[in-house]
C-alpha cells in the first residue's frame, strides 16, 4: 500500500471513529430526573396556540404562565376526594372587576420575567392574545375569547364596509414580492390602519353544481384573495395610538394585486385586511404592569379562561427571532412558568428543569421532571413497578381489578367525556337517522364493565354531570330495535347496502379494545361492517382536522366547570368541531346564552336547549364519562385528584425517603 494511501486510510479511519463517538454520545441515556411520569405519546407541539391534547397540556401548564393559574381551592369532596380547583393570581398579582362585570383590570407582578431575564409586561398579553386570535395562527381555542369586542370577526377574518381595520403589508421577513407568503405570521409586516370604504370584487367564478365541496371552497377562497379593499388611512402616533378621524389618504390593497382583475397599478399587496382588534379597546396596556380587558357581556367563568393555557403570555422576542416552529426547540424556547424545557428527545421524553427566574421559584421543590413518551399502559406499569417512573395516569385496564385495592391507586370522577366523532359530510353519515342508529346500537355498559373497568359512567348526553346549576336534557336511550328501524328508514334494511366504514383511533391499547368491541357490536346488531385504523398521535390529529375519516375516537376534558367548555366545540365551522356538522339554532342559543351572562338561570336553560339539539342531531356519539385512574408513588406529596386531572408540578413534594 502506498504511503499516501496508508495516510489517507488512517485519516479516514480517525474521522469515522470520531463520527461514531459523536453519534453514540447523542444516544447516551440521560441521568434520571427526580420525578418522572407517563405522558402518553410525544407532544405534537409545545406552542400553546397550536396545542390541543393532553400530552401537550401536561407540559405547557408547567412551563408557561398566564394572568391567573388553576390551583386548589377549598377542601376535597368528602365522598370522592376530588380537590376543587379555582383561578388564582399568577403573572397578575391582583385584579378588579367593574360593577357591570364587563371590565377586568389586572395588575402584573413587577418581578415577573421570562426565563432569559426579559421582563414580562402587559404588552406581552396584548401581543399574545392578538396572535392567538389571528386567523393564520390556526389556534383551535380562539373561540374562548369571543366575548371580547371584535374578537370573533378578527379570528374569522370577517370585515364589512365601515369597519375600522388593520392592513398588513407584504413585507414580512422572508416575503418575496409577488410570491408565496412567508409561513411565519409573526413577526408581522408593516401595519396600516384605517376605515374600510369599499370592496371591489372581480366576477365570481362559475362553479358547476357537481363540483366537490372541498374544491368549491378552495375556488371561492382563491377568488376572495383577489378582492380589492379600499381603505381610508388614519394617522398613527409614535406610541401606536390610531387617530381614526384623521384621514391621511386612500389606498387600495389586495392579496394578489398582480393577478387580480379588480386591481390597478396602484394597488398594494397585503397579507390581509382584518378588523383592528387590538386597537379598538378590547385589550389595553396603559403601562407595563396594567392590563385591561373589555367584554361584550359578563362571563361568569372568565377568570377560569385566563387560567387555561391558550390565554397565557408567550415570548414575543423569542418567537420573532426563531419563527414557527423553531422557537419551541429546547435550545430556543423561552418560558415563564415554574419549569423550563431542558431537553426534548423524540419518542423518549421531555426533560423539564426548574426555572430559577419564575416569580415563585422558592416554592418549586423538584428540580427536574421527565415527561416520558410512553403510550403503552403495560410498559408504563412495568416502569412504575421498577422505580423508573413515579406517576402513571393510564394503567392497563386488564389489571384495574387488582390495582383497585392498592393504596397508591387513586381513582376519581372527572369533568370529561369519551366520544366518537362522525364525519357528517360523508354519506351515509350525513343522514341523522344513521348517526342515531349507530349511537343507539352501542352497548356502553359492556364497554365500561369489561374494558375500561374503573367506574366510568355510560354517556347518553354530552355534558358530564356535576356542574353546579346545570342539568342536561334527557339523553337518548339505547334501543336496538329503534336503531334497526332508523337504519331501514335510511335505506339500509338489515344493514344491506351499507358501505364499509372505518373507525380511526390513535395508538393506545384502550382505544383499540373499545373499537374492537364496537366493531363486533355493530356487526351483530345492525349487520354493519367496520374496519379499524390505528395512527400515531400527530397523524391522527391531522386526519381528523382535515375531515379525512368516517368515525374517529376522541375525548374532551373540560377546560373549566361550565357547560360551554363542551358545547362551544360544536359551533358551525368551529376549529374544534371537525365533524362538518352545524346547526343555526344551536349556534344562536349559544350566542343568546353568552349575552345572558348576568342571568345565571336563563343562561343555563339556553345551554340545556342547545345540548338538546346536539343530542337530537348526534354529530358525535358519546360513550362514557371518564374517571381518572392514577398510580402515584406514596412518597409523592401534594398530588390530589382534580376535576380535570391537572396537577401543578410546582405543588408536588418528594419525601426524603423517596426512591
TrEMBL record:
Entry GO MF terms: peptide transmembrane transporter activity
GO biological process: peptide transport
Lineage of the species this protein comes from: Bacteria, Pseudomonadati, Planctomycetota, Planctomycetia, Pirellulales
Protein's name in the database: Oligopeptide-binding protein OppA
Superkingdom as given in the UniProt entry: Bacteria
Solute-binding protein family domain location: 88-160, 241-577
CDD domains, sorted: PBP2_OppA
A GO CC term attached to the entry: outer membrane-bounded periplasmic space
Cross-referenced Pfam families: SBP_bac_5
Organism name: Rubripirellula amarantea
Amino acid at each position: 500500500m502506498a504511503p499516501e494511501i496508508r495516510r489517507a486510510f488512517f485519516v479516514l479511519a480517525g474521522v469515522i471513529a470520531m463520527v461514531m463517538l459523536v453519534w453514540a454520545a447523542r444516544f447516551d441515556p440521560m441521568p434520571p430526573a427526580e420525578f418522572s411520569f407517563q405522558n402518553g405519546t410525544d407532544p405534537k407541539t409545545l406552542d400553546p396556540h397550536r396545542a390541543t391534547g393532553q400530552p401537550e397540556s401536561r407540559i405547557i401548564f408547567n412551563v408557561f404562565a398566564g394572568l391567573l393559574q388553576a390551583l386548589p381551592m377549598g377542601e376535597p369532596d368528602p365522598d370522592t376526594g376530588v380537590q376543587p380547583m379555582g383561578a388564582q393570581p399568577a403573572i397578575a398579582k391582583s385584579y378588579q372587576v367593574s360593577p357591570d362585570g364587563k371590565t377586568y383590570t389586572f395588575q402584573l407582578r413587577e418581578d415577573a420575567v421570562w426565563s432569559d431575564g426579559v421582563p414580562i409586561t402587559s404588552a406581552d398579553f396584548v401581543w399574545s392574545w392578538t396572535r392567538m386570535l389571528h386567523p393564520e395562527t390556526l389556534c383551535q381555542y380562539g373561540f374562548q375569547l369571543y366575548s371580547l369586542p371584535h374578537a370573533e370577526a378578527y379570528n374569522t377574518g370577517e370585515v364589512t364596509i365601515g369597519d375600522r381595520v388593520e392592513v398588513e403589508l407584504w413585507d414580512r421577513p422572508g416575503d418575496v414580492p409577488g410570491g408565496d407568503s412567508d409561513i411565519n405570521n409573526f413577526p408581522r409586516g408593516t401595519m396600516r390602519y384605517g376605515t374600510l370604504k369599499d370592496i371591489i370584487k372581480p366576477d365570481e367564478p362559475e362553479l358547476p353544481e357537481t363540483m366537490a365541496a372541498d374544491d368549491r371552497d378552495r375556488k371561492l377562497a382563491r377568488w376572495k384573495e383577489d378582492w380589492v379593499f379600499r381603505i381610508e388611512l388614519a394617522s398613527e402616533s409614535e406610541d401606536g395610538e390610531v387617530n381614526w378621524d384623521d384621514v391621511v389618504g386612500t389606498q387600495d390593497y389586495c392579496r394578489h394585486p398582480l393577478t387580480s382583475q379588480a386591481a390597478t397599478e396602484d394597488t398594494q399587496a397585503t397579507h390581509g385586511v382584518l378588523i383592528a382588534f387590538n386597537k379598538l379597546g378590547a385589550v389595553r396596556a396603559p403601562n407595563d404592569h396594567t392590563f385591561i380587558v373589555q367584554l361584550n357581556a359578563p362571563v361568569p367563568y372568565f377568570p377560569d379562561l385566563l387560567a387555561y393555557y391558550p390565554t397565557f403570555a408567550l415570548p414575543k422576542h423569542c418567537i420573532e427571532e426563531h419563527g414557527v416552529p423553531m422557537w419551541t426547540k429546547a435550545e430556543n424556547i423561552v418560558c415563564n412558568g415554574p419549569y423550563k424545557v431542558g431537553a426534548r428527545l423524540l419518542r423518549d421524553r421531555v426533560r423539564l428543569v426548574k426555572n430559577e427566574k419564575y416569580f415563585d421559584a422558592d416554592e418549586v421543590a423538584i428540580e427536574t421532571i421527565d415527561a416520558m413518551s410512553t403510550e403503552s399502559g403495560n410498559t408504563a406499569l412495568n416502569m412504575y413497578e421498577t422505580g423508573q417512573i413515579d406517576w402513571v395516569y393510564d394503567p392497563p385496564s386488564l389489571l384495574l381489578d387488582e390495582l383497585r385495592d392498592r393504596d397508591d391507586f387513586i381513582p376519581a370522577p372527572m369533568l370529561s367525556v369519551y366520544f366518537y366523532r362522525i364525519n357528517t359530510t360523508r354519506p351515509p353519515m350525513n343522514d341523522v337517522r344513521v348517526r342515531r342508529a349507530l349511537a343507539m346500537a352501542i352497548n356502553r355498559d359492556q364497554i365500561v364493565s369489561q374494558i375500561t373497568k374503573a367506574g366510568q359512567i355510560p354517556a347518553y348526553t354530552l355534558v358530564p354531570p356535576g356542574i353546579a346549576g346545570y342539568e342536561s336534557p334527557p339523553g337518548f336511550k339505547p334501543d336496538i330495535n329503534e336503531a334497526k328501524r332508523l337504519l331501514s328508514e335510511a335505506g339500509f334494511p338489515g344493514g344491506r347496502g351499507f358501505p364499509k366504514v372505518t373507525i380511526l383511533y390513535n395508538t393506545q391499547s384502550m382505544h383499540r379494545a373499545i373499537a374492537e368491541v364496537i366493531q363486533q357490536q355493530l356487526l351483530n346488531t345492525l349487520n354493519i361492517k367496520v374496519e379499524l385504523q390505528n395512527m400515531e398521535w400527530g397523524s391522527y390529529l391531522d386526519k381528523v382536522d382535515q375531515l379525512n375519516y368516517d368515525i374517529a375516537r376522541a375525548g374532551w376534558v373540560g377546560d373549566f366547570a361550565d357547560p360551554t367548555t363542551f358545547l362551544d366545540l360544536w359551533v358551525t365551522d368551529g376549529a374544534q368541531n371537525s365533524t362538518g356538522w352545524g346547526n343555526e339554532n344551536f349556534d344562536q342559543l349559544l350566542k343568546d346564552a353568552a349575552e345572558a351572562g348576568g342571568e345565571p338561570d336563563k343562561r343555563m336553560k339556553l345551554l340545556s336547549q342547545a345540548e338538546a339539539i346536539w343530542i337530537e342531531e348526534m354529530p358525535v356519539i358519546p360513550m362514557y364519562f371518564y374517571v381518572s385512574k392514577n398510580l402515584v408513588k406514596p412518597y409523592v406529596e401534594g398530588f390530589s385528584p382534580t376535576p380535570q386531572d391537572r396537577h401543578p408540578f410546582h405543588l408536588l413534594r418528594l419525601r426524603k425517603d423517596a426512591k
